[in-house]
Give the backbone structure.
Amino acid sequence: MAEAQSHHRQKAARLIAGLLMLGAALLAIAMLSLATGARAIPLETVWAALTAYDPNSTEHRIIWDLRLPRTIVGLLVGAALGLSGAVLQGATRNPLADPSILGINAGAALAVVLGVAVLGMTQLSLYVWLAFIGSGVTMLVVYSVASLGREGATPVKLALAGAAITAVLQSIINGILLTSPRTLDEVRFWQVGSLSGRDIDIVLQVAPFLAIGMVLALGSARMLDGLSMGDDVARALGQRIGLSRGLAGLAAVILAGGATAAAGPIAFVGLTVPHVARAITGPGYRWILPYSMLMAPILLLGADVIGRVIAPPGEVQVGIVTAFIGAPFFIALVRRRKLAAL
Amino acid sequence: MLRSAAIALALLATSALPAFAQWSYVGGNGETVMLDAVPTRIIASQDAAAGLIPLGIRPVAIYADSAVADAKALQGLDLTGIEIIGQAWGEVDIEKAAALEPDLIVAEFWPLETTWSGGADVVNALSPLAPITGPEQGASILTLIEDYEELAASLGADLAAPSIAADKAAFETALADFKAATAAKPDLTALAVWAGEDALYVAATGGASELMDFASWGLKLIDPEVADDRGYWETLSWENADKYQPDLILVDNRSAQTMETALAQPTWTLMKAAEAGQVTDWPAYWLRNYGAYASELAKLTTAINAADENLAP
Amino acid sequence: MTHVIDAARIAAVRQAAATRRQVVVAGLVAALCVAFALAMYLGDYPVAVPGIIQSLFSPFTGLVDRGVDFIVLQVRLPRAVLAVLSGASFALAGIIFQTLLRNPLASPDIIGIAHGASAAAVFVIIVLGWSGLAVSFGAFAGAVLTALAIYLLAWRNGVTAFRVVLIGIGMAAMLAAVISYLFTRARLNEVQEAMAWLVGSLNASRPGDSIVLGGAMLVLVPLMVALLRGLDAMELGDDTAKSLGARVEFTRLGLMLVAVGFAAFATAAVGPVGFVAFVSGPLARTLLNGAGRGFLQAALVGALVMLVSDLIAQHLLPAVQLPVGVVTGACGAVFLLWLLMASGRSGRVN
């Protein structure tokens, strides 16, 4: 008994140390993100820009106007994607649950396409609201459709409903894009998923939502642990299944919707990171959630830094780099471990 | 003897008549189209329609690769009574086209792609209905418009009609003004760009016919060092937006959004010309007639006259 | 005594299942005939019914009306035939994967094979600047190579369904990123061309497309039927099948190759028309309600979805001709949603 307890404590200590290390790594990558870019700026200039801003210096302007908002967006979006992926996978008990599979990306994309094509919107700060509304409404529709019928929203029905709704939305999107090159021209740059061109306005608009979503998500750890034992066990333990799923789903929608609104659809971060986190922490959402929340922005910012330097004088968007880092990693993980157990 | 020779000649002439086409035109692909009569029922691509309608040749139908309402080239033209048989890339209503019984299909030849406007799928669908021809896109919009004049004249257009002559005169005036403006500011340099959220795209002069026109009329366009997309654009990260420092910036005006996007970028004003507001429209790729060319040239001339030519070192 | 009753009951159940299969096939064939007749009749070029029939027989009778023959024989007939063939091919590709991997999400348009074809085609259009037949070849090669890569990556002392699906989804995400990247690196008219191909269209149907696809199906369908016999043993589960001595891996690989063949040939002909592969299998099985695996029925459903979608795409909006792929998604999804809603009553999905 005592031995088991000390083993437990040891594990907790190890996991806390891991969290601290991840925090340090995150800080380091954030600094790296401020220091690298298509334009070479010496480190001391970066430091001077942060401590003694000179509005007449081109370099200082680039740090403040481009790299700082971009880094903050990366941190927020990364944390939101990692958390929402973990929560979705837990709530649906589906290892493949990902915002894109549940239709959230398509909903956001349709809203943006309609905004550009019908309302003539052009500014990213306006896209934010559209994408947010689009993803929220879509997620609600997907969930309600999947909940119809006797057995409720089972994982398979959720995935099917998500795929079906995505297909409907994609049809409408394609119809609009094919007849309106003007919209295609705007949307092709949004659809790829990018952290660049996001100014501080966008951060301010999205941040409150992401904060609420993060609190909700981190608070849902116990419910997710209950759900992971299966609906019957959870029910026997006195958990209200529908309520738990609903709250967790709400957190996931707010997070994924906010992230997509800020950066465009970024696939793969929400899908991969929770699996990696689970591989380190073992089952138990009390640990999986914070680990996902710290690891995802490391992946996202790291990918963004790589994207900024590999194709000078242009850049490769972060959504592409995450796919190219995330997918092989994910494939390796699938080959090495058994991921089915959720 | 003489009499029989005359009869033989007359016979020859009559028998040879059908072989002498009543109408022929050498298309941009180098092939000659010959028809027994001057074609009257014409299906035109959207760019060809923009070239022909102001010259008095009205096609029975237009096929476009996007919503006609969005097509910059067709703006301001009277399209009443003309069927629209395609509004998406690669899609054309072949049955409507067949029901219109066209004599000729007019499009522009794209030398790089070696196909006609609309792409191979549309051309393959339409070509069983009637021969396809038209001018070639080349190094000058002015030459292209002159090709349309020649084609329209062969199709029976009266190029001396007052409205057509007025358009041409307006263009001549605008051109003279433009040349005078560039000559008056020999140090003025210009840069043609497309602005996206992700990057600033700098156009190569050789990739756009109207830019080549402007250059030949005295405007000093800065050419990008590395045009990565098959010689059309150089992609600049917004961090490097000040790589080139022109005195005047021309922004692609196919969509009004491009200008808004540019203005919204914090580093747009790293270019001194942007900071000073020396920014104007670039009528990118869509000019097809004297009327539109005249008003776009006038806008440019105004911007050149107002610009400080010694802004950039 | 009880044995006799059981045997009688089993016979009755079998009889009922067989009847249901026949009813479903008959119903689908009837619906397909109606849709085909409509596809031959509807159009902006007015042709009366006798004219259509006369034109259809003109190669034999020699009675020729150039205008009508062009519309009937060169426009409507190739388009309808290609819709039927490609719809059936997509459906068969989908149901083979869904059956083998025992997951309704495992159709080729979700596990990356369609993405492989698409990425290759977009590369050919945008980077190489080619069009036409080269794009079809690119798509075909892309589909086959991606399928091969997924299979090899999923191989580890054999392949499990779960690994194939997960690795397929990983490949799909990576290939989708390639497409997005190429989209941001191209000129707008190239993006338009690529986009039109990605949606999938029957507009450029030539009789030759149907002949190539039909020829491929003539080879693939018998292969599929032969391999399906092996599948009967496998459906009992891998362990049982092994103990029965069935060559599980051989059958699985063979069937996957056949499915990739269906998907690749259909995609090369009409582009990666979405959702037909995904939706046909589950729909056919719902119609059958447990009375069989539903391969034939799925093929009929696929052909029907494709043909009806194209009719809607051509005639719904008077001013705009839409490519068929814009509608298949919506059309298939409406079916699927209805099915999800109905599943509360009838029991299970898939």
